[in-house]
Amino acid sequence: MKYNVKKLTIIAAAVAINIVGSKIALVLSLPIFLDSIGTMLAAFTLGPVAGGLTALVGGLICGVTGDVYAIYFSLSGVLMGVIAGFLFRNKKKDPVSILWKTFLVVLPASMLSACIETFLFGGITSAVFTTFVVQALSQTALKLFGGAFLTQLVTDYVDKLVANLLVAACVKVLPSGFIDYKTRTAE
């Protein structure tokens, strides 16, 4: 992927969307994260590299501006952005395909998130609701990792489904030049 000004501008805007969404979810203690709308926008419009890069940069910025957990979970975001780029870039985006493709995006990333949450943080994250659920489930047969994985899978799926449906709706109304453009050589 050649990085020209248009692509870098889209990635920068997508990073800003991720940061704003993350801060809203953190301040309101929402059970979803809202930190991947920009990642999905970049993945849908520019592909896997842009999706992964957007998640990484957004996570690092959120991490140094108040949510240290975001730095570690940005790895999961990168994985989601890359997979979403492969599954959604220039592909059919009807509601049914979005349902199952979102699951394919979320499953491996939720496993990675559960590992990060379990082994680095003992089931504690900046999301109060999910931390409570993970701690409650850790007292069942699921134990800590199972509780973290189940919680991540459900919350990630809902979060990414909302993001993907929103982005798919936005992409439909964007001018074709925003999505289908060729990199021009300097004249």
UniProtKB/TrEMBL annotation:
Gene3D superfamilies named among the record's database cross-references: 1.10.1760.20
A Pfam family that the UniProt record links to this protein: ECF_trnsprt
Gene Ontology MF term list: transmembrane transporter activity
Domain of life: Bacteria
UniProt entry keywords in alphabetical sequence: Membrane, Transmembrane, Transmembrane helix
Chain segments annotated as transmembrane: 12-34, 40-62, 69-89, 109-134
Signal sequence segment: none
UniProt protein name: Energy-coupling factor transport system substrate-specific component
